[in-house]
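Protocol step 4 of 6: structure prediction from sequence.
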Amino acid sequence: MSNYTIAEINLSALQRNMEIIKYISNGVKVLNIVKANAYGHGIVEISKASEEFGADALGVANVEEGIKIREAGVKLPILVLFQHFKDESDLVCQYNLNPIISNDECLEYYDKFLKKNGGTLNLYIKVDTGLNRMGAKPEDVLALSKKVLSYDTLNIEGINTHYAAADMKDDYSKEFTNKQINTFNEVLNTLNKNSISIKNVHTANSAALIYYKNTYFDMVRAGIILYGYADSPCKPILNLKSHVVLVRNIKKGESISYGMTWISDNDTKVAVIPIGYADGISRKLSNNWEVKINEKYYPLRGKVCMDSIVVEIFNDNIKVGDEVLIFGDDEKLNADTMAERIGSISHEILVNIGERVKRVYNKKINK
């Protein structure tokens, strides 16, 4: 909205979270996932901080994100987690990205570029163990691996899979996850029997990191856990804040916002806050959220607007300019509790923080 509405990001908390993740995962390599603008936290700043704090690699969704990090000066390995297009193959090589492939379609394009420009490319093979989104089928992995190794310019740096329900605790989900783990291990055994050794085997997403210790292998993927969510000791590193821009008197019987969905039972006061659904505050939170001002919680009244929300402050001494916590490192107001209100997940809450919300970074780093 303006500089009065900010996402305040605590890099010291990021560092602590990374230390916790390293401890939980028994010291294996950690791949920090920074896709989707680092889950709304700022892809360049979080990537640079991750490099400074000892991450072993970074994960992005697409080639464009990888290029953005490279051009910012980050030297860490950058894994492109999702299948890219053939015409992006030259860029993958040019910017030294590590593609994760599901088939052999891009191999000849990598090879052509590398033979012309020199160098080699380290890539990963994705195994589809049941998510049925991307990846080679288990029975096709050996042939794909042999095809990769038939090129002098290409190396298999790693192999991975992704779990469909590692975060779910019902019996069927647990059984499904264990089946995925077993399938993946069978693929590894087949490769080993064919003398194909893999340097970086990784399968654990944030949920598996917490619930399935047999998924760690050589490296774990720190996604939502890195930002302080998932069932872990990690703390949220982002506080979404704004400030009161107006205080208004409301008479008994008057309504608030579009559609007159809230009508006051008595004379009261409200505060207008310059943040709305354009900044990531879902309209489903209309009459269904609270904010924190001066260490006290106040209910949101009426519909969320594009650029503002209105909260009832009763007769409290709230003034223009007072700081407002929308959500963050707070037991009651955080991305998990907000997600529960609208039937979503914390990931969506975080990535939906709008572009016009200024990201402000706490630079007090623990050495």
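Step 5 (inspection) to follow. DSSP finds eleven helices and 19 strands in the chain.
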